[in-house]
TrEMBL record:
One of its GO terms (biological process) is isopentenyl diphosphate biosynthetic process, methylerythritol 4-phosphate pathway. Residues 63-137 form the GHMP kinase N-terminal domain. The keyword Flavoprotein does not apply. The active site is at K8, D132. It comes from Flammeovirga yaeyamensis. Its EC number is 2.7.1.148. One of its GO terms (molecular function) is ATP binding. ATP binds at P90, I91, G92, A93, G94, L95, G96, G97, G98, S99, A100. This is 4-diphosphocytidyl-2-C-methyl-D-erythritol kinase. Catalyzes the phosphorylation of the position 2 hydroxy group of 4-diphosphocytidyl-2C-methyl-D-erythritol. Pathway: Isoprenoid biosynthesis; isopentenyl diphosphate biosynthesis via DXP pathway; isopentenyl diphosphate from 1-deoxy-D-xylulose 5-phosphate: step 3/6. HAMAP family: IspE. The keyword ATP-binding applies.
Amino acid sequence: MITFPNAKINIGLGITEKRSDGFHNIASCFYPVNWCDMLEMIPAKTLSFQSTGIEIPGNPDGNLCLKAYHLLNEKYDIPPVQMHLHKIIPIGAGLGGGSADGAFAIKMLNDMNQLGLSIEEMEGFATELGSDCPFFIENKPVYVTGRGEVFDTLDLSLEGKYIVLVNPNIHISTKEAYSGVTPTPLSVDLKQLLTSSINEWKGNVVNDFEHSLLKNYPVIDNIKKSLYQKGAIYASMTGSGSTVFGIFDDEIDLSNYTEYMVWSGKLD
Ligand SMILES: C[C@](O)(CO)[C@H](O)COP(=O)(O)OP(=O)(O)OC[C@H]1O[C@@H](n2ccc(N)nc2=O)[C@H](O)[C@@H]1O
Ligand SMILES: Nc1ncnc2c1ncn2[C@@H]1O[C@H](COP(=O)(O)OP(=O)(O)OP(=O)(O)O)[C@@H](O)[C@H]1O
């Protein structure tokens, strides 16, 4: 079985409160984009994992695909699989790529072994893997609060809009990025803003990580400015960086981003 775990962007990201468990409460819109990894699992005699494509830092035993397997195996004693991840989504990039791999692994193992898990049960397992993981179970635009696992429907469709994602090859650690932010309650009704016209977003829909990170990494700031110069209706850093996205009505010329990792396409 093969699947294509996709990235997400954060449209607006309020970091509202530091929690007693060390995490932060956030408020954001998570929106799927089709920049994808490839994940294959086939039944095997022993459990194994290999990855190709972009090199993944750290020990392969800590890969979220394997962690997903162990999580389900603990409870359901599932047979071994051979896993192959072809990594394409930039890492430490605010795109939730690792989280998508973990969540898709849960969904694949559920299907392959006919575990019959509900969406809520899979989201519960995904939350154990990471804060961004549960979103990728349903994988549709939502308004998110809590640590990233509380979902509220959002009447927002950007279908047909053209999106450009530019990653300046900088790896930003999520933990460090959170430690550089002072949590503040939302000063606007983010959910309402998101469901108003996209033309209202510029300057109003804010990612709280930008304040510190755009100062520390001028290249991120410059990419954001260049996307606006190219006519973006809205541009922002996603998650804890370092990727910046711009939303446009039509395709744009990408020739001045050749030194970066870039993905563009229409939103679903
Ligand atoms: C920045 C976002 O991508 C926005 O969607 C997410 O909040 C990050 O989610 P993630 O990469 O899945 O992060 P996790 O693997 O759960 O946590 C990594 C570290 O980030 C910090 N962290 C993460 C999520 C959160 N809501 N509050 C936090 O403070 C914690 O220090 C945690 O130890
Ligand atoms: N499947 C995976 N893909 C990428 N990184 C993984 C994966 N599994 C585990 N990791 C570990 O997670 C670290 C990256 O986590 P990090 O949260 O910074 O990035 P991310 O998962 O690409 O998404 P984001 O930047 O949005 O948080 C890597 O350095 C690696 O050690």
